[in-house]
Design brief:
mainly alpha
């Protein structure tokens, strides 16, 4: 018997169960709602973090472009763009 084969007892148990309810439908629904809320909270935080990382990367790219430019209107516009991007980031991330 390989490690993935089930014994006759295991097959019967999984097919029939014990006949006892482990939890009620309401308990299951409540636990499912909590799990969904936790997943959504993590997804929201992950998305916020991804947006911040992307903003930081954009600011760095524009800042490098500004450093390569001679002083003038284009350089000033690029520096203003960097400032605008950084203004959209929380203070702790700057």
């Amino acid at each position: 018997m390989s490690k993935y084969d089930l014994s006759d007892f295991q097959k019967a148990f999984l097919a029939k169960g014990t006949g006892n309810n482990l939890f009620t439908q309401q308990e299951f629904d409540e636990a499912l709602a909590v799990a969904k809320a936790e997943i959504m909270a993590i997804a929201i935080e992950t998305t916020k973090t991804a947006i911040l990382i992307e903003r930081e990367a954009c600011a760095e790219v524009v800042e490098r472009l500004a450093d390569e430019e001679e002083e003038g209107e284009v350089c000033t516009a690029l520096k203003n763009a960097v400032a605008a991007i950084k203004d959209r980031m929380p203070i702790a991330r700057q």
